[in-house]
Amino acid sequence: MAKKGLITPELYQFFRELKENNDREWFKANKERYESDVREPLLQFVMEFGLRLGEISSHFLADARRTGGSLFRIYRDTRFSHDKSPYKIAAGIQFRHERAKDVHAPGFYLHVEPENSFMGMGLWHPDSKTATKIRTAIVDRSDEWKKIVTASKLLREFKLGGESLKRAPRGFDPDHPLLEDLKRKDFLIFKSLSEEETCEPRFINDFSKSCKLGAPFMRFLTSAVGLDW
After folding, report:
1. Which of 41, 52, 71, 145 is 20 to 30 A (C-alpha) from 166?
2. Which phi and psi (to 5°) does residue 111 adopt?
3. Mean pLDDT over all residues of the chain?
4. Strand 91-96's sheet: what is its strand order?
5. For the whole model, what pTM was predicted?
């Protein structure tokens, strides 16, 4: 019998059905499926990646607690949303820096969703003070930054992504040769993943290798915001 990966087709099937039945009654009736096909396998993924994470950096955490850890909760915060659907139709895992207080700090990320799975790393929507620190580091260490983000090995797997400002950020030269990077509002690299890739038994190893590949990018951002790598 072929070995199964931690992430399985059953996880994707659960989310496909949840998308069509996003209500508390359906979820209650299928709670055991959520536990067995989604939550427990992903917590195991967190644990197993945690054994490898120290090879990349000793300052990032793989927290396999059932609540409040690396695995995001499935319940949506609907307080300020027009969409009152109670559940997320995807699973997210973030391996945050040990000094992180929220998702806006450096982190490695895995998103598992039917037809929209991906992995990434970096900072999403940092506040203005943090973004200024990163932009200043890009200016002060421009050769290092260029070498990292133009490395052929990195670009074979990842793309720089996220939102950007329309013009140069305040206090920065609008004619700077790295203006497009200075305009970034998110400092991220990401790559798409197929369902088949994530369900492979070797995916935990492939994910680890990709995180190692992106380590120079993460090291730059982590040091730029004054955190230990």
Report:
1. 145
2. -120, 125
3. 96
4. 91-96, 107-112, 117-123, 187-193, 159-161
5. 0.94
